[in-house]
Every structure is written in structure tokens, then in C-alpha cells.
Design goal:
This protein is of the alpha/beta class and about 850 residues long. The chain is about 35% helix and about 20% strand. The strands form 7 sheets. The protein has an 8-stranded mixed sheet, sandwiched between helices. Strands 9-16-13-10-12-11 form a 6-stranded parallel sheet, with helices on both faces. Strands 17-18-19-21-20 form a 5-stranded mixed β-barrel. Strand 30 and strand 31 form a beta hairpin. The radius of gyration is 38 Å and the shape is elongated.
């Protein structure tokens, strides 16, 4: 089949015509249609790339290199000449390069040094449906550049599966959409009958043997989550009798380029390619008729415990599973066996959550700040991230010194950190490590934070003590124990039984090595000294402090694990930590677990001891002092303490005789209002007076009496407490003069006149009126004898509000409640009188 036979050429003329009308085009074409390799060549061949280089953004480094190699081969040129690529640490391109494949982060960084994108005529966003974070951000920046200074810039978005209408709305009404149906064959999908707990490589090998025995034709594609699982699968299948006549080849990003090329090359023999999800959409492997899907992938997510992005093995979504299935139907009918149950499949999410809402945004925000985008909340997001993710990222960057605390502007240190293509925590740590000449151990620490803890939880005190005895070393940081444990496992080839005896998870430890080497490569590429050598623990602790300064904590007391953390949090230090003595610590993990009462229980893990002088050395600008006025509940008095603060974390408290009068009054008033301090004059009469004032303000507004809100009452009590520092000084102090000051001299009599506390009755007695704060009608309660001679219902508030009359029998129990006293005497009293007079013959009855 020639390139012209690829499905993408069915829409060539429509696509080129659309691009001639609009500088924004969406190409919707299925995997295997040829869009990744042929669209750039169409532009070149048809003269639509004369205004500059065609740059194709790919989500993955492996696909970036291999697609460039494929296009270069088709055009019979050397990679790096007319066709090139650039990924992290590799740049095979030059001034003559017309088609250039790059990873998404490369272009975003290029936008910093070349904000006009001079020399680039077209930007193609390939596999955009995967919604990688840098793809979203780079598209937004490209649109801004096109709309402001580069109207000639062509923007093409390509995808196999995409919410086209949503994307078109984002890109603008003038955007053209071109779709290709592609060419696929039916694929038979099957599942495991029941869940299998054996290793996924064992399952894959077993199913490979079964399928070969059944006589299936074509090549196999097996999906595994990472390099380790791929290697185990390759070993298992190669050792199988069913593999006779097959080439078994791995495919993942850690392989040498020649080995990656070997996996996608064509052979006379049948082959089995065991790949990561790079073969899910980005690459088409010819000849595949059978897919065995492990159903797992390393998926980047933000881990709030570590405050970093992690790459852990997770179940794939149903959409990803469908993409993998389609790989078996590119050239003929195929088979896909999923190594999970159908019930499991139904429980999986439909799509992956876009990275914008599952990754830490600090590196992206730092990049945007460097591009002079100050208000990140009004940035042209394709999908706006959650506000808390933006707040969290900005706070971290300020803590690291990458952004100014007051303005949020990028600092010189922040620009230096951007030169490291890693999370800002590790950029900050590596810069500090260079200053302290300890890059090698800090790179290992960075690797140890990426995956699961290599030390098993549990195992009891005996195992922990045994581990500490054998591994020995400093007890100033849990990282030092992790480093010793990893070195122990590494030297012993990650032997499972040997590691288990010390509570070391061999598989997790094995995964640290490639990450360690990755960080060392980054550091070396940026000119840092990565050679191992003698160093001291203190400088390593300082580097840990710089990267996790937002997890700084101080013990609240020496005898417990309770601590206070920066940014107003409280928690508990892990009881498994070997750091038991230091009052000031920093944690690499902060776990927040919701308790039964829905409050968060915060636990600090992987602890490192730090010192205050290190804080002054590294973060001198974050120190301050203030006076805090507090209430001593035992002495029942207000005292002041002078606080030494790092950010908002009190490092020391010193009592002082100076007491702020305003602060003291405010605190005492609060304790009074909370009823922790009881004023002897604050009786029910006071509460009724507040309600009477509000009652009159509502019902007789012309009197000009202002209502008393809760804040007003608090202000009056604060005024009452002014000048005092203790309960003793206020408990017997006259209260009424302050309360009555709310009203002027002409208003005070009106309260007793129109909202009286008591009402004169015909009997000569004064009946008490009860007022209610919820607006209920005031109530007069009195015995029936006191009402003799009162023919009509009494009213208050200038006669506007009839009282509710609660009529009591001689035993003080209610016999009637009414607002119609006239009707009571005529309709109810005769019957009531006959009954009550028999029970209470000694009382007067009229």
C-alpha cells in the first residue's frame, strides 16, 4: 500500500481548502488513517508551509522520534535535515528543517525565548484527545499569538476521538472541521471469566499460548504499563514453546532508539510487540491482528500527600481500552483479549480526567508567569482548572521563592528553576544541591519521592529495630533510612526474600533506579556536578527543606506527636518516623484523612529534622514578629505574647506585660458572648431589653430607634470591656449605662412607654410582658382574676400590636390563650367560670 492509499488522503482537498479559508482547522480522523505522518507532508507539497516551519506537537517522546524517522524515511532524507525532531535533551533539527516533531513542553518553553514564534508557520496539535496539560496550555498560547501578533500562523488540531463541537466553540466560529471515516475491520472483544490475581505478565503469556494454539493469524500487540512489566512479559513469552517462530520485541520510552525502531519494523517472521500505551494512538504497528490488553497504564496524577505529580500504575478508562482494541482491526478482522472481567470494565470511567484537573499546575503556572501572563485566572483555558488547584500551585511557588509573595511576579530564582524540566520542588532542590555540592544524593531523594514508599508499613517494632540495626546511620531524616534501604536492595539485586526481611518492598525499590538516573541526567544536562562524593547530612537536610518548605512543622510539645504546620494547619507526626527529637521538622508527605466527624486528620510522613538558623539562611524574607493577644482560660485574663513567625508558623512565644487595650476588649467581649464569662448584671432583663429595642424599631420606625444586630451587641459589650484585662474587672461592673448608650436621652423613655416591660392591670397588679427574638407576638401572662375589668385586648407599640394574652388559672396553669379578650369574656368565660369556681371556691369570680 502506498501513502496515497491511506484514508487521510480521502479528505486531502477538503482539508487544504479549509486551511486556505481559515487559519484554524480541526482534523478528526481515526488512529491508523495516516494523519500524523501525511498532514505535515501535504502542507509542504502543496505550498502551505512557505511561511515557516511545520511543527507537530506529540504527547510522547518515543512517538515524536519515531514519527520523525518515519516521515524522513518516506521523504528519503536524513533525520535532522528537512525532517527533524526535538525532545528533552535531544534536538535533531536545524535551519533547514521544514517539518519538526516536538513534545508539547518543548514548544511552550520555546514560546518564552521566541514569543512571536518567528520561523514557525504551522503548529499541529496531534492526538489532542488525550488532553495532556502542556497541549492545553500551548494551544491557548498559540491562539493568543495568532490573534495578537501572528495572524498568518496556521493552527491545526488533530485527533482520533474528540469532542469536536466543544473544541470548535473554543477555537472560534471560523474554525473548519474536516472528518475522515478511516478504514477499520471488526474486532472480537473478550474478557476474563473471573478476576485473576496472578502477575499480569503471567496472564498475558498464558493467553498468548492459548491464542496461538487456537490458530489465530497475524502479529500480536500486548499492552503493559511500564518497562519492568514489559521486560517480564517478554521473558515469559520468549520462554514459551508457543513463541517458536515469533520475534518478541519490547517497545517503551527507556529503550535505545535502535531497539524502538526494531519493534515497529516489518519482518518475514511473525512478531509479538509488548508496549506501553505509546502504541495506543501515536504509533501504528503494521500487521497486528491480535491485541492482549493488560488494562493498566502509568497515569500522571497529582498526589496531595507528596505535593507532587506522580506516575503510578492505574486502570485505564473504557475509551483507552477501545483505542487499544482498534489496533487489532487496521488491516483485517482481529481479536482483542482484555485481561479483566466484563464487570470490571463496566466500573471503569468512560474517559480519563483531563490532566488540567488531575495534575499539579505549579510548573505550568511558573512558565506562564515567565511569559508575562500575570492573571492566570483569566488565561484562555480550554477547561478552567479548579480554583483550589490554582491557589495551591501559586502558594507552593511563593513558598519555594519562585514567585514574589506580595505581587505574584516571577523572581530571578523562579527563572533559574525554569531551566530544569522537572517539577519546581526538584528544580529548587537541585539548585540548592549544586550550591551545597550534594547533587548525587539529592537526585536519589527526588527519585525516592516519586513512587510508593519502598519501606513496608507494619511488621512491628521488632522489624523496624532490626532494620535500623542492620542499616544503621543517621536518625536526622527518614530519607536517610530510605536511601540506605534502597542502596541495600540495589546491591542485592532487589532479591524479594532478602528485602522482605528488612521490610523493604523490592518491586518499589527496583523502580527507583531509572528515576534516579533520570534526575541525574537532567542535572548533568543543566551543568550540575553529578559525581558521587563525600558530603554531610546537614547540607542534604537543607536541600530537603528547600523543596518541602510548605510542609514545615513545629511540635506543640515535646511529649507528643502533635504539631502545627505552615498555612494554618495542624497534624500529627508519624509514629513510624526515626526522627524523634527535633522540635522543627519538614515532611515529604502530608496525608489528610477525613475522620468520622468529617474533620481532617492530618499525618506527616517521611520527616526530616531542620533548624531555625537554616530557615534564616535560606528564607530570611519569610521571618516576622508580632504581638498576639490571647485569653488564658485558667487565669481568666487576657495576656499578650510576642511571637516570632516563619510565614504564619509561630516558632517561639514570649509573654509580655504589654496588653493591647483594643485586643483585650475584643477578646473579653467574645468570651462574654460565648457565655464563658458570666456578667452578674447580664440577666434575662438585659436579653428582653435587646428584643424590646428591636421590636420598637420594627413596629414604630418613625421613632428613629436603630435596631440592634448581633454585631452591635458585640460592639457594646466590647465597649463595656474596654480598659479591662481580666474577668475580675468586669464581672460586677455596671452594665446598664453602656447598653442604654445605644439610645439618646429622648429615645430611652419611649422604650418603657411603647414596649413596656410590665402592664398595669385593673387589679392593681403589673403583668409581665414577654418579648420574643423571632418576631412572635409579645405575650402577657397573668391569672384570670387580674384581668377582671379589662374588657378589650391591650395593645403596645403605639396601639399597633395587640398582645397575646395567656390566661392562667389560680394554680398558674394556662387555661386560654387569645388575642380577642372581648370574645373570651362573652363566649368562653361563662363555661370556664363554672368549672374553675368549683375547683377554686375561695377565689373571687365575677
Amino acid at each position: 500500500m502506498t501513502n496515497r492509499d491511506l484514508p487521510i488522503y480521502q479528505i486531502e482537498e477538503d482539508f487544504l481548502a479549509a486551511l486556505g479559508v481559515s487559519k484554524r482547522v480541526i482534523v478528526h480522523a481515526p488512529t491508523g488513517s495516516g494523519k500524523s505522518t501525511q498532514v505535515p507532508q501535504m502542507l509542504l507539497e502543496r505550498g502551505l508551509a512557505d511561511n515557516g516551519q511545520v511543527m507537530i506537537l506529540q504527547p510522547r517522546r518515543l512517538a515524536t522520534r519515531m514519527l520523525a524517522a518515519r516521515v524522513a524515511s518516506e521523504r528519503r532524507v536524513r533525520v535532522g535535515d528537512e525532517v527533524g525532531y526535538q525532545i528533552r535533551f535531544e534536538d535533531y533539527s536545524g535551519s533547514q528543517t521544514r517539518i519538526k516533531f516536538v513534545t508539547e513542553g518543548i514548544l511552550l518553553r520555546q514560546m518564552l525565548s521566541n514569543p512571536r514564534l518567528d520561523g514557525i508557520g504551522t503548529v499541529i496539535f496531534d492526538e489532542f484527545h488525550e488532553r495532556h496539560l502542556y497541549g492545553d496550555i500551548t494551544l491557548a498560547r498559540a491562539l493568543q499569538i495568532q490573534e495578537s501578533i501572528r495572524p498568518d500562523l496556521q493552527i491545526i488540531v488533530m485527533s482520533a476521538t474528540l469532542a469536536v463541537e466543544e473544541l470548535r466553540e473554543y477555537l472560534g466560529a471560523s474554525t473548519k472541521v474536516i472528518s475522515s471515516e478511516g478504514r477499520t475491520f471488526p474486532v472480537e472483544v473478550s474478557y476474563l471469566r473471573k478476576a485473576d490475581e496472578s502477575p499480569v505478565w503471567d496472564q498475558a503469556c498464558e493467553e498468548f499460548e492459548r491464542l496461538v494454539a487456537s490458530g489465530v493469524e497475524g502479529d500480536f500487540l500486548v499492552f503493559m504499563p511500564g518497562a519492568y512489566e514489559i521486560n517480564r512479559t517478554v521473558q515469559m513469552i520468549q520462554a514459551s514453546r508457543s513463541a517458536k517462530g515469533f520475534l518478541v520485541l519490547p517497545l517503551h520510552g527507556e529503550l535505545q532508539p535502535r531497539d524502538q525502531d526494531a519493534a515497529v519494523a516489518r519482518y518475514e517472521a511473525r512478531k509479538v510487540v509488548v508496549s506501553t500505551n505509546v502504541a495506543e494512538t501515536s504509533l501504528t504497528i503494521d500487521g497486528v491482528r491480535v491485541v492482549i490488553d493488560g488494562g493498566l497504564a502509568r497515569i500522571p496524577k497529582y498526589d496531595p500527600q507528596r505535593g507532587i505529580n506522580t506516575l503510578l500504575i492505574e486502570k485505564i478508562s473504557r475509551a483507552s481500552a477501545d483505542q487499544r482494541t482498534g489496533r487489532a482491526g487496521r488491516t483485517a478482522p482481529g481479536i482483542c483479549l482484555r485481561l479483566w472481567t466484563e464487570a470490571d470494565h463496566r466500573s471503569r470511567p468512560e474517559q480519563e480526567i483531563p490532566e488540567i484537573n488531575r495534575l499539579d499546575l505549579s510548573e505550568v503556572i511558573l512558565t506562564l508567569k515567565a511569559a508575562d501572563i500575570e492573571d492566570i485566572r483569566t488565561f484562555r483555558w480550554l477547561e478552567s482548572p479548579k480554583p483550589q488547584l490554582l491557589d495551591r500551585a501559586e502558594t507552593l511557588l511563593k513558598d519555594l521563592g519562585a514567585l514574589e509573595s506580595a505581587t505574584g511576579h516571577i523572581t530571578p530564582l523562579g527563572r533559574r528553576m525554569l531551566s530544569f524540566p522537572v517539577h519546581p520542588r526538584y528544580a529548587r532542590m537541585l539548585l540548592a544541591a549544586q550550591d551545597y555540592h550534594c547533587v548525587y544524593p539529592v537526585a536519589l531523594i527526588a527519585a525516592l519521592t516519586q513512587g510508593r514508599n519502598i519501606l513496608l508499613r507494619g511488621g512491628g517494632k521488632e522489624m523496624r529495630e532490626n532494620r535500623e540495626d542492620i542499616l544503621g546511620g543517621s536518625a536526622e531524616s527518614d530519607f536517610f533510612m530510605l536511601m540506605r534501604a534502597w542502596t541495600f536492595a540495589d546491591k542485592r539485586g532487589y532479591h524479594i526474600d532478602t528485602c522482605r526481611k528488612l521490610g523493604i518492598h523490592a518491586q518499589s525499590a527496583r523502580q527507583v533506579r531509572p528515576l534516579f538516573e533520570h534526575f541525574l541526567r537532567i542535572a548533568k544536562e543543566e551543568g550540575l556536578d553529578t559525581e558521587p562524593g563525600p558530603t554531610n547530612d546537614e547540607v542534604i537536610q537543607k536541600c530537603i527543606l528547600t523543596g518541602f518548605i510548605d510542609h514545615l512543622a513545629i511540635r506543640l510539645d515535646a511529649s507528643s506527636h502533635r504539631c502545627q504546620i505552615v498555612h494554618g494547619r495542624k497534624g500529627n507526626l508519624s509514629r513510624d518516623s526515626i526522627v524523634t527529637h527535633s522540635p522543627l521538622v519538614v515532611a515529604a508527605e502530608v496525608q489528610e484523612i477525613e475522620g468520622r466527624d468529617r474533620e481532617l486528620n492530618v499525618s506527616l510522613e517521611i520527616i526530616t529534622a531542620v533548624k531555625e538558623e537554616w530557615l534564616r539562611e535560606i528564607f530570611p524574607q519569610d521571618f516576622s514578629e508580632d504581638m498576639e493577644t490571647i485569653f488564658d482560660a485558667i487565669q481568666r485574663r487576657v495576656t499578650s505574647v510576642r511571637r516570632k513567625l516563619f510565614k504564619d508558623l509561630p516558632l517561639s512565644l514570649k509573654k509580655t506585660d504589654e496588653v493591647d487595650k483594643d485586643g483585650a476588649a475584643r477578646i473579653l467581649a467574645l468570651e462574654v458572648l460565648k457565655k464563658n464569662l458570666i456578667l452578674h448584671e447580664w440577666t434575662d432583663e438585659v436579653n428582653q431589653w435587646f428584643i424590646r429595642v428591636n421590636f420598637l424599631a420594627k413596629n414604630c420606625p418613625e421613632l428613629g430607634i436603630a435596631a440592634l444586630a448581633k454585631e452591635d451587641i458585640a460592639a457594646l459589650i466590647e465597649q463595656f470591656c474596654y480598659g479591662a484585662v481580666s474577668y475580675k474587672e468586669i464581672k460586677d461592673k455596671p452594665l446598664w449605662p453602656i447598653l442604654r448608650s445605644w439610645l439618646n436621652s429622648s429615645q430611652l423613655p419611649l422604650i418603657d412607654k411603647y414596649a413596656p416591660e410590665r402592664l398595669e392591670l385593673p387589679s392593681g397588679k403589673r403583668g409581665k410582658i414577654e418579648y420574643f427574638g423571632d418576631g412572635t407576638t409579645p405575650k402577657l401572662s397573668t391569672t384570670i382574676q387580674n384581668l377582671f375589668g379589662l374588657k378589650a385586648t391591650p395593645s403596645i407599640a403605639m396601639g399597633r400590636v395587640p398582645l397575646l394574652v395567656e390566661i392562667l388559672a389560680p394554680n398558674q396553669r394556662p387555661v386560654q390563650v387569645t388575642q380577642d379578650l372581648t370574645g373570651f369574656w362573652t363566649e368562653h368565660y361563662p363555661k370556664l367560670k363554672a368549672e374553675l369556681s368549683r375547683r377554686y371556691p375561695r377565689h373571687e369570680w365575677q
